[in-house]
């Protein structure tokens, strides 16, 4: 792929320009890389660094040279910190590069993560379903203190960082109306817990839509054609049965798509 270069379809139906690197594991399986031991059953943990920092730095270098975008999976606080260190060093040698590098998941971070990503222009790519699906055991794994720095969507935005919300398909419920529901409510599909899990981190409906649509287009270098409806962009859109801005939060997950349009053509509809 490096030799061939990115795949950039002029009709924007298939674009391949990003690479994802797995840096650590996952919190559920206790393989995510944390600085301090797991709060529950630390002896069962098998913290994993799947690739050395040197190799990530090498891939970053090659990605830049061949026109690819870098995204690195980092879940634990130590993993996120190390990846930011790699990014920092690499970006110092590419002044003014429009990199749009991403951290995938950024689930547990150190307090300085938020300022660092804002300053470096790193995009935090997070999955609203994770905060809901993991809420059953995440605090056991992390304890009361680290959980404050986990799944912190508002922490990122308030520090001036860029946030995109997506589904991590197929690991969790992935339908867009469900992803939107999780982002706005931090509740499961049965509306639990009643006020949402750590509700301070919930997103407003407009912020959630923006993170899923406009910011995501930017995060894919496609904001010129996707993520907005204006002259010059593709007429890619859906028509919903209700306006998500004007319904109770609990109804978001039941939104129904009535028709789907791609580049101005109706490709699917219920009528
Ligand atoms: Zn991942």
SSE arrangement:
Layout: E1 7-8, E2 15-16, E3 18-22, H1 53-66, E4 69-74, H2 77-92, E5 102-105, H3 113-120, E6 123-127, H4 128-133, H5 138-146, H6 153-158, E7 162-166, H7 176-185, H8 205-212, H9 214-219, E8 237-240, E9 257-262, E10 265-269
Parallel strand pairs: 3-4, 4-5, 5-6, 6-7
Antiparallel strand pairs: 1-2, 8-9, 9-10
Helix pairs in contact: 1-2, 2-3
How is this structure best described in words?
- About 30% of the residues lie in helices and about 15% in strands.
- The protein has a single domain, classed as TIM Barrel (Alpha-Beta Barrel).
- Helix 1 crosses helix 2 and helix 2 runs parallel beside helix 3.
- The strands form three sheets. Strands 3-4-5-6-7 form a five-stranded parallel β-sheet.
- Strand 1 and strand 2 form a beta hairpin.
- The mean pLDDT is about 95.
- It is an alpha/beta fold and about 270 residues long.
- It starts with 6 loop residues before the first strand and ends with a strand.
- The longest helix has 16 residues.
- The relative contact order is 0.10.
- It contains nine helices and ten strands.
């Amino acid at each position: 792929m490096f030799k061939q270069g990115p795949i950039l379809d002029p009709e924007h139906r298939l674009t391949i320009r990003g690479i994802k690197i797995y840096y650590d594991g996952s919190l559920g399986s206790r393989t995510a890389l944390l600085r301090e031991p797991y709060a529950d059953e630390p002896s069962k943990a098998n913290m994993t660094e799947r690739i050395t920092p040197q190799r990530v730095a090498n891939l970053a270098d090659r990605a830049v040279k061949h026109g690819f975008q870098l995204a690195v999976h980092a879940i634990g606080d130590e993993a996120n910190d190390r990846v930011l260190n790699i990014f920092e060093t690499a970006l110092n040698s590419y002044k003014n590069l429009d990199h749009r590098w991403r951290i995938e998941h950024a689930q547990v971070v150190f307090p300085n993560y938020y300022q660092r990503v804002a300053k470096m222009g790193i995009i935090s790519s997070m999955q609203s379903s994770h905060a809901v699906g993991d809420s059953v055991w995440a605090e056991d794994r992390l304890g009361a203190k680290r959980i404050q720095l986990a799944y912190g969507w508002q922490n990122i935005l308030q520090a001036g960082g860029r946030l995109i919300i997506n589904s991590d398909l197929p690991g969790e419920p992935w339908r867009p109306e469900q992803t939107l529901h999780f982002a706005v409510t931090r509740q499961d599909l049965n509306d639990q817990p009643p006020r949402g899990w750590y509700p301070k981190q919930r997103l407003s409906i407009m912020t959630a839509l923006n993170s899923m649509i406009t910011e995501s287009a930017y995060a894919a270098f496609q904001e010129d054609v996707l993520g907005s409806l204006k002259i010059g962009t593709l007429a890619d859109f859906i028509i919903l049965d209700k306006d998500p801005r004007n319904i109770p939060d609990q109804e978001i997950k039941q939104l129904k798509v009535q028709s789907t349009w791609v580049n101005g053509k109706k490709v699917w509809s219920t009528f």
